[in-house]
Fold:
Amino acid sequence: MATQRKHLVKDFNPYITCYICKGYLIKPTTVTECLHTFCKTCIVQHFEDSNDCPRCGNQVHETNPLEMLRLDNTLEEIIFKLVPGLREHDTSKADKPKVDEEGDENEDDKDYHRSDPQIAICLDCLRNNGQSGDNVVKGLMKKFIRCSTRVTVGTIKKFLSLKLKLPSSYELDVLCNGEIMGKDHTMEFIYMTRWRLRGENSYPMVLQYRPRIDFG
Structure:
């Protein structure tokens, strides 16, 4: 019978180390636009000088990339189990740069989305009479979702691309009431300024998606 290979911690290093500081991830924080993960202090400090992801170079947000961060508590627990003593090292470490030295004293425990107001959305596939791409872009099996009001259209597009298994180069338009929404529009902004049918029978908000149309 074949013996099972024992995995070493170093085998997992590509998945549990920070691209910026090269150490084990401390308070792993994921950029929701590209799904790359870094130490919280590392990525917050990086965004003081840049709006781009340090790993892939993609722009995270035009004005406030901190809105696109989310703590990954599950990954943190996995790392603590893989690396004995790291939890104690994390809580006692004094030389790690502090994010909150001049800010909120509870900033370290803040999750950028979980405590946000939530909104229910219906994602509806818009058919365009045989338009090229209609065979690729299908309706979702589950088209109702609930998310933070701070989620942007860009994140919704990435969610759709993952669910529909679209090629990375494939572009989508997201519309509300027939108007194409910009990628940095938040759900709250769209609800307050575009979802004109607000009322007892107009919940959830409906967003439509379709293959991008080039008007150029």
Confidence is low (pLDDT under 50) at residues 92-112. The CA atoms of residues 50 and 65 lie 9 Å apart. The helical segments are 13-16, 40-46, 73-82, 86-92, 153-164, 187-193.
